[in-house]
Amino acid sequence: MNPGRIKGHLPVLLPARKLMLSDIPLHDRLFNVWTAGALLIAFLVTAIGPSFAQAEAAPARSILTILFEWTPSIAKAFGFNVLISIMAMAIGTVLGVGLGVLQVSPRSMIRRLAWIVTQFFRNSPWLVLLFYCILLIPFKITLFGMSVPFPGWIKAVIGLSLPVMAYMSEYMRGAINSIPSGQWESAQSLGFTRFQTMRDIILPQTIKRVLPPWMNLYAVLTMATPLVSIVGVNEVMSLTRAALSAESRVDLLIPMYLYILCWFFLYCYPISTLTGRLERRYSVKL
Amino acid sequence: MKKTVKILAALAMTAGFAGAAQADKLDDIKAAGKLVVGIKQDYKPWGYLTVDGELAGLEIDLAKDVASRLGVEVELVPVVASNRMEFLQQGRIDLVIATMGDNPDRRKVVGMIEPNYYAGGTNVIAPKAVGLKSWEDLRGKDVCALQGSYYNRRVTQLYGPTLVAFAGIPEATSALTNGNCVAFLYDNTWIESQLATEAQWADFEMPLVTEDPQAWSIAVPLEELDAPYGKMMSEIVTDWHKTGFLIERNAENGIAASPFLQEQHDLLK
């Protein structure tokens, strides 16, 4: 037994623990900010490098100059993607939590209905849901004589929030079911109603279980936002296409798309690393 | 959730009926103070995006001119071939000026304004080394094209090339320069302006005789064609030809002189 760990012994300054390479989990050694950065730089050098060298010989502007010039527009359009993803996530999360709670309802009718809705949206292709939303929802709705405009990107937000809702519903169902039944029983013995138990005891405990998959879902959703360009929303993919045709440079296609990829990578990578960290912190220790 | 979708669908229908029952479109536009025009943002130099994120090009000039003649602001909505007519039908946009070819099928869906404001035909851009001489030379060869172009079917039926269709011009031209196809089937107007201005096409040519001339039309919703709004648009296009405004804007945007514009100008002046 390590005497240093026993309470009541004289405090002794233990030798500083050396951080061994083997102490770091393998996935952290392979996938961290440094390796990601190195990967990104390698990407840029291999893809943009050759065209850069060619461009220097030609009198035309270099690829890097062009990318640099378009950066403000790309940043703006990318911000739009982020906005779409955040809004879809917010709507989907709220609806999904509700649907998830309904999935564990004691009434079998409600439970079954919630299950059907969840399965329907969880197993439909995102693009198909998007198409439906774009086609079914009118561009403006007349409510009580007031016309509320419904631009394409709002429809896209709704379209993307449907699968998010379904995934979230499944996460919630799993999380609620994973809470030990003793929690329910003790709440009942203290006179809590079912609603109170759910709101004050069960749901708060599900947060840490749902958080990592929720963040993963967000990263996936962000990477899915270019889908909305297909339904005519002017986000970063549409802008890239417009930029490519405005420049009419044949050698620009690959570097430009790679540049967009980098934007998504830099945005999503920290999210997935943070998720990994949270997952390890909250992992069930037996 | 399903219920919500149903309610939204029901609302959609009521909104649609309400839209159809509205009075004169011209008055609506003036009351709203803005004209919403569907334009292309990926068809340089007719409609494209500048580095500052502004839209520019011949058709953007036209859209702005229509708005200023009506005394309203202009709102430009980027459209693509697959959604421009839907947007117009839904009422999302008031006017389409988006390189849209005038043909009988489309006339059943949207109101094509006469006279036509522009015209283009079908041709290919190919490396000089391929040495194409006639349309027949394309038979059995891989030819790049754009998805949804009206001339794809006609060219396939007549000359039997294997079409490799891409979603956008950048992808198609990239495939052409990489040698994935022997030629790129497209509008002769675009090819001419590219060959004239871009150094990267120095080894390319437009070897064939332009076929299947298509007049381009600006379009209004079908029910507006004979209403004051449609008539007003027709007068504006006539005036563009008469005053030489189109010829001037064409040259200003760096597009090769168009015989069609000259012909119309001579006809109407």
From TrEMBL, chain B:
<feature type="signal peptide">
    <location>
        <begin position="1"/>
        <end position="23"/>
    </location>
</feature>
<dbReference type="GO" id="GO:0005576">
    <property type="term" value="C:extracellular region"/>
</dbReference>
<keyword id="KW-0813">Transport</keyword>
<keyword id="KW-0732">Signal</keyword>
<protein>
    <submittedName>
        <fullName>Transporter substrate-binding domain-containing protein</fullName>
    </submittedName>
</protein>
<dbReference type="GO" id="GO:0030288">
    <property type="term" value="C:outer membrane-bounded periplasmic space"/>
</dbReference>
<dbReference type="InterPro" id="IPR018313">
    <property type="entry name" value="SBP_3_CS"/>
</dbReference>
<dbReference type="InterPro" id="IPR051455">
    <property type="entry name" value="Bact_solute-bind_prot3"/>
</dbReference>
<comment type="similarity">
    <text>Belongs to the bacterial solute-binding protein 3 family.</text>
</comment>
<dbReference type="InterPro" id="IPR001638">
    <property type="entry name" value="Solute-binding_3/MltF_N"/>
</dbReference>
<dbReference type="GO" id="GO:0006865">
    <property type="term" value="P:amino acid transport"/>
</dbReference>
<feature type="domain" description="Solute-binding protein family 3/N-terminal">
    <location>
        <begin position="34"/>
        <end position="254"/>
    </location>
</feature>
<dbReference type="Pfam" id="PF00497">
    <property type="entry name" value="SBP_bac_3"/>
</dbReference>
